[in-house]
Amino acid sequence: QVQLLESGGGLGQAGDSLRLSCTASGLTCSWYVMGWFRQIPGKERDFVAAISQSGGSTYADSVRGRFTISRDNPKNTVHLQLNSLKPEDTAVYYCAADSDAYGLAVMRHVSYHYWGQGTQVAVSS
Question: For residues 45-67, b (16+ Cβ closer than 10 Å) or e, as one string?
Answer without folding.
Answer: bebbbbbeeeeebbbbeebeeeb
